[in-house]
Write a structure and sequence with these properties.
heterodimer, A: 428 residues, alpha/beta, Urease, subunit C, domain 1, TIM Barrel, eight-stranded mixed beta sheet, 25% helix, 22% strand, globular, B: 473 residues, 11 helices
């Protein structure tokens, strides 16, 4: 009961009051896969989207923001992120993603440690990111733990949904923590799910028990289908093995993460109704399990009917949520490359807004400008997927966000690097 | 013993003969040798390039927007390639040679090939298995003796992606940054070959990879060895340069006055090359204060730092870098992935440009190298939002003539000046747009990528016969 109450509290954590806003005259991207609408209006009240599109009336008393010549979109949703959980790589002291010395794995709950005040949240927010799925990293088993959905608002309450999903590594990254091989990880996964389904049958006291009672309890909602199970796999054969889990546990709400060879089994994924949070542009066999990598992966899966979001999974270019719009734009670029398969603009925009939300069953709550969604709105100075574009205004839950960050402060201090009458430390 | 006593001088003598081109008679003894002359005491090019340009046809691209790579722009421009070179560049009225293949570039852009001054393709190739991890000789903090070309795997699939998606025609492969002195770099044409010699950019000077900051102190501090601190880094650096100065003094004396040749040392050969200005220093360094220390150390020992790589805080000392003539090689917007990158800002490139410092983009990444044009577009836009006015064609210098200068090859490539190598990209739109990709890429006038022709899409040995072979990537 207590857990249910906490979950309910998390769901209504948005500010009770936020002003009524009407953003008019801009090119509006709803984020649901539709094409942008010129001269549209977006209305936000009480922290939620009221309406968006053409011919939307401005409510009396609304604060009107003229977005003529600009673009308006839902806030970007970062489908694989460590925001709030680590301040940077190479700094163990401020990295809470992995716990190799803990007896726990699946039971780990990142929502207890989200820090909304680190520099990354404000910096990434200024690129138009308003929500993120925060992932733990697997360490002592291939179960990484329970991830959270957060907002990037400048307030002390980052949680949108605690324990929003369980994350598990299979494939190459799961073989090690799973005991040393793929089949070892697979049998541990099945053992753990069986223990979760029937805790009374499990022998947690045995000294060789690989997961604890707490881990098994954390997996209860997974086997009951109330918590999505996000599975990181790349290889086509590994994807087939994951899809096969549904035969024994039909309630599982599987989501594939990465899925670089997904195009090879796209029809199977579509038939299983399993969504994918894909690695956006991975096109190299950086691992043997990504041998068939191609930037057309996302487009091919989408064409086969798979719900595909893109993310920072597997990218080597730093953990920057700000790159998501660039990756989505690249998927549009592929539509002009002979033989390649990309996404049209509306689908590309959806791949970083409503699709990640849909993958974990939250597209009724976030990820688009459809009525009733959280009031996460970004006004851009141009096409949001273009490299030169940037937000000019950002709203989270209908609340206008500051547009400054440590980066803008450093920029302002050093636009002219030469010291004047006082050291740089006095310029602020 | 026999080998040591006799073999060494004979090999050396042969090398001297070859180098000095001084007839066929073997000298009676070393002491009778005439002085070989500066830089001729031993072979400086024992692994010479065997790269040869592939055949091309005379080609004229017309009605395209042209960025010449040096800051110039021609709307409705014409670029003519012949004999592997840029033959001419001009406006719509430029004469087109008889028989040239004419390509309509309406709505498209022509630029010089992209140059990545910082890559680990081949020495950290795909797949990233331990057996192919050859980028860091992390067994001692000073490994100036290693040469990156001896680690480069020419079958790295990454070269093909850099070509097809990034329009990269030239790239420098560096050793990693675990060590203070990481070893020699090598500059390659982005053309697959059976051997690394077959990829080497003919006549490009070597580079020396150095590193300051977190990496060396972490790697060796972690082994409870010197250096474990930044002051340890600089101490080991200076001690090493002192040895190099002494080595050079001996070789200078021998090469100018003759006598017994000093003992060779592979590491010291490289450092002497730096002190002689023959090898260019590429120094991995993030923080402004550390770059300033390195610049003073270079002055102490009489060498020049050609470029600081990564340089996320270069914007804080843009004036100092300008005054010392040292380039900053940076990402568009990487920040916060380690403590020394905590202060990275996306205006870095633009602030450097505004200050008049030499600046350029780099990837250091097998994915980023596929999108350097996009990285430039982001850095440019960030600068403009901060009020720094830079034109598109000026920004293109960040991946053309500026990296060519940092690599010492600006007389041969890096811009569309007539007589330079025919390293050219035809883009299917504005290359500073996210929606644009290379349509055709020429290297030395040979078309080696064509989006419209699946046969002009390289497939490395590693990918041959594998799932996805020949797929668009």
């Amino acid at each position: 009961m207590k857990r249910l109450l906490l979950a309910a509290a998390a769901l209504i954590a948005a500010p009770i009051y936020a002003e009524t806003i009407a953003i008019t005259g801009g090119t509006v991207a709803i984020g649901d896969g539709s094409q942008p609408i010129r001269g549209g209006t977006v209305v936000v009240a009480n922290g939620r989207i009221v309406a968006a599109g053409a011919g939307v009336a401005v409510p009396a008393g609304a604060r009107v923001i003229d977005a003529s010549g600009k673009w308006v979109s839902p806030g970007i949703v970062a489908g694989v992120s460590t925001l709030g959980l680590m301040e940077g790589y190479g700094m163990d002291e401020v990295n809470d993603t992995a716990a190799s010395k803990s007896p726990f794995s699946a039971a780990i709950d990142v929502s207890t440690a989200i820090n909304p005040d680190g520099q990354r949240i404000a910096t990434e927010r200024s690129s138009g990111i308003t929500r993120a799925f925060v992932f733990p990293a697997a360490a002592n088993t291939m179960f990484a733990g329970q991830g959270a959905v957060i907002d990037l608002g400048a307030d002390g309450d980052p949680l949108t949904r605690a324990r929003a999903f369980q994350y598990v590594e299979l494939g190459e990254d799961g073989a090690g923590p799973g005991g040393g091989s793929r089949p070892a990880a697979y049998v541990l996964l099945k053992t753990a799910l069986a223990a979760a389904a029937n805790p009374a049958s499990a022998d947690f006291a045995h000294r060789d028990a690989l997961i604890t009672r707490q881990d098994a309890e954390a997996l209860g909602p997974v086997v009951r289908g109330t918590m999505p199970l996000l599975v990181h796999v790349e290889r086509a054969s590994d994807i087939r093995s994951v899809l096969a889990l549904k035969a024994r546990w039909p309630a599982l709400r599987l989501v594939l993460v990465g899925a670089t060879e997904g195009w090879m089994v796209a029809r199977d994924i579509a038939a299983a109704g399993v969504p994918v949070i894909a690695a956006a542009l991975v096109d190299l066999p950086e691992k043997f399990e990504t041998m068939a990598a191609t930037q057309s992966n996302v487009g091919r899966m989408a064409r086969a009917g798979v719900t595909v979001a893109i993310s920072n999974a597997d990218i080597s270019e730093g953990p920057y949520e700000s790159y998501l719009t660039q990756y989505a734009g690249n998927l549009v670029a592929l539509t002009r490359v002979p033989g390649a398969q990309g996404l049209d603009w509306g689908a590309a925009m959806a791949s970083i807004t409503s699709k990640p939300a849909a993958a974990i069953g939250m597209d009724g709550e976030i990820g688009s400008l459809r009525p009733g969604r959280r009031g996460d709105v970004v006004i851009w100075d141009g096409d949001p997927l273009e490299l030169a574009s940037a937000p000019t205004a950002i709203f989270v839950d209908g609340v206008a966000q500051p547009m400054t960050s440590r980066q803008t402060r450093l920029r302002d201090r050093y636009l002219d690097p030469v010291e004047k009458n006082l050291p740089k430390a006095y310029e602020r | 013993m026999v080998f040591n006593k006799l073999g060494y001088p004979i090999v050396l003598a042969l090398a001297l003969t070859a180098c000095a081109n001084s007839g066929t008679a073997a000298p009676k003894s070393a002491s009778d040798d005439p002085p070989p002359g500066k830089g001729k005491g031993f072979d400086h090019d024992p692994f010479p390039s065997t790269y040869r340009a592939y055949p091309g046809v005379p080609t004229a691209i017309i009605h395209a927007t042209v960025y010449d790579g040096e800051g110039g722009r021609i709307n409705d421009g014409t670029v003519v390639l012949s004999d592997g070179k840029v033959a001419a560049i001009g406006a719509a009225d430029l004469a087109i040679p008889q028989g040239a293949t004419v390509i309509d570039g309406t709505g498209k852009w022509v630029t010089p090939g992209v140059i990545d001054v910082h890559s680990h393709l081949g020495d950290y190739p795909s797949p990233q298995v331990k057996a192919l991890s050859d980028g860091n000789e992390a067994t001692a903090p000073v490994t100036a003796q290693v040469w990156a070309e001896h680690s480069v795997w020419p079958q790295d699939p990454g070269f093909s992606r850099a070509l097809a998606n990034g329009g990269v025609t030239t790239l420098q492969i560096l050793p990693g940054s675990a060590n203070l002195f990481g070893g020699r770099s090598v500059t390659l044409k982005n053309v697959y070959a059976r051997t690394v010699q077959g990829m080497k950019f003919p006549g490009a000077p070597y580079g020396l990879k150095m590193a300051c900051g977190e990496n060396p102190k972490r790697v060796y501090g972690g082994k409870n060895r010197e250096p474990s601190t930044r002051m340890g880094n600089v101490a080991v650096d200076r001690q090493t340069w002192m040895k190099a100065v002494e080595y050079k003094r001996k070789w200078d004396k021998y090469e100018s006055k003759g006598g017994e040749p000093p003992a060779r040392d592979v590491a010291m050969d490289t450092l002497m090359g730096v002190l002689d200005g023959e090898i260019l220093v590429h120094n991995h360094c993030y923080r402004a204060d550390e770059m300033a220390i390195v610049l003073d150390m270079a002055r102490e020992f009489g060498y020049k730092v050609t470029a600081f790589h990564h340089a996320v805080e270069a914007y804080k000392i843009a004036d100092l870098l300008r005054d010392r003539g040292t380039c900053a090689v940076v990402w568009a917007d990487w920040y916060g992935f380690k403590m020394e990158s905590y202060d990275g800002i996306p205006e870095n490139l633009a602030i450097l440009q505004k200050a008049g410092a030499c600046a350029m983009i780099h990837s250091d990444d097998q994915n980023g190298i596929q999108r350097l044009n996009q990285e430039v577009a982001k850095a440019l836009a960030s600068g403009r939002r901060a009020g720094i006015g830079i034109s598109d064609e000026q920004a293109w210098t960040w991946l053309a003539i500026n990296p060519a200068r940092a690599l010492g090859i600006a007389d041969r490539t890096g811009s569309l000046k007539p007589g330079k190598m025919g390293d050219v990209v035809l883009w299917n739109g504005n290359p500073l747009s996210v929606y644009t990709r290379p349509e055709k890429v020429w290297i030395d006038g040979a078309m080696l990528y064509d989006a419209d022709n699946p046969r002009l899409r390289p497939v490395s040995d590693f990918e041959l016969g594998q799932p996805g072979e020949g797929d668009v990537k």
